[in-house]
Amino acid sequence: DDDVSSHKLSLLKRRRDVMTSANILFYESSKQELLVERAEGQWMFDEEGNRYLDLINNVAHVGHCNPKVTAAVTAQMQKQYTNSRYLNSAVIEYSEHLLKHFPQELNTVLFCNSGSEATDLALRLSSYYNGKSEYICLKGGYHGHVQSALDVSPYKWKGGAVKQPEHVHAVDAPDAFRGKHKGNYAGEEYAKDVAEVISRREGKISAYIAESILSCAGQILLPPGYLKAVYKYCRENGVLTIADEVQVGFGRVGSKMWAFELQDVVPDIVTLGKPIANGFPMAAVVTRREIAEAYWKSGSQYFNTFGGNAVAAAAGLAVLKEIEESNLRQNALEVGEVFLRGFEDLKQKNDIIADVRGFGLFLGIELINSEGLPAMEEAYFVRNRLLEDRVIISVDGPDENILKLKPPMCITKENAEMVLEKMNAVFNKLK
Ligand code: PMP
């Protein structure tokens, strides 16, 4: 055991010697480092071969080290992975397949390498298209680490390094559980905040950007009618709508391929990342042809060295086929149902659980203490205790009081039941 921990300590020291402390690790604050040596499906294995159930990794969408994705990547790497300015069939085949999953009007794909790049590209496309340069985003939202994305990411505006820029307007996240509007009309009420900014900044707003379920903002489900009302105000005023599906896309919500579909709307621009190629660096922007063409009309061509390379396209295609052929959306629905029902039971037994929510395999448990305040310490207690039980879960939200689950889509009902049992024991310790 000593050897194991001294090995880990030595790695941590070497890491600190060559990397910035801003590159924080999941369990750094609780001094419970996890060294991942190997991963497979919904499992990760440490240096001693101990197996951990991964409830966090939405990037390993079709399972860690999925053999079909690995085979597709390997085969393509052995064929060609040259400059994306030569004709390459893999990226065309991928685009055709991807677009089958979108409403007809969203008919054009632009490729890049990260969610942040996709956000940057979406914002620029919008400005090229309508010639405007101000944006509306949601408080608590996160859309990436490049400057333009940080500009629309209030989640990162704390700490002083990143400040709210003048060209960005942040409206309240439509939280119908703890926010200012509740009940049946919360969606329409929150949408009025967007209308207010559009009218105050008349003719200046280029786009409205939001995730289709709010992740960093605290696993918040958009109230019914919210995006419909927002998009209506936007369209009446020439404001484009951007849906960030980086965390929530690719069937995670189960009943739909994209979370924006839950709100019965069609965005002008959609950004995709994280799960798109199961961890192989890849991202994309999907939009209408006329918006994509604005790039060219702006006097510039779109060239991205790695964006749309044949290996990424092969990985992406393998992911789409795996979602379809292994019925992973159906699995997300069924396993998500087991989790939600179990969370409801836990809520009945534990006053600290104020709300449980989610769609498919995108789930949250909100903890509020007896004084009615966000229970951050307790959330970390649950997370850290679950690590001892070899279950990996995360804490999120502006108040760090939301337990968050977004596991690989191949997780099983038996896995969910095991987690619920362990959670029950951990919550009992909190009493
Ligand atoms: N949008 C959302 C909703 C995200 O969660 C993230 C990453 N956490 C990004 C964009 C940025 O993606 P990336 O880290 O790949 O640049």
TrEMBL record:
<dbReference type="Pfam" id="PF00202">
    <property type="entry name" value="Aminotran_3"/>
</dbReference>
<dbReference type="InterPro" id="IPR005814">
    <property type="entry name" value="Aminotrans_3"/>
</dbReference>
<comment type="similarity">
    <text>Belongs to the class-III pyridoxal-phosphate-dependent aminotransferase family.</text>
</comment>
<keyword id="KW-0663">Pyridoxal phosphate</keyword>
<dbReference type="InterPro" id="IPR015421">
    <property type="entry name" value="PyrdxlP-dep_Trfase_major"/>
</dbReference>
<protein>
    <submittedName>
        <fullName>Oidioi.mRNA.OKI2018_I69.chr2.g4896.t1.cds</fullName>
    </submittedName>
</protein>
<dbReference type="InterPro" id="IPR015424">
    <property type="entry name" value="PyrdxlP-dep_Trfase"/>
</dbReference>
<dbReference type="InterPro" id="IPR015422">
    <property type="entry name" value="PyrdxlP-dep_Trfase_small"/>
</dbReference>
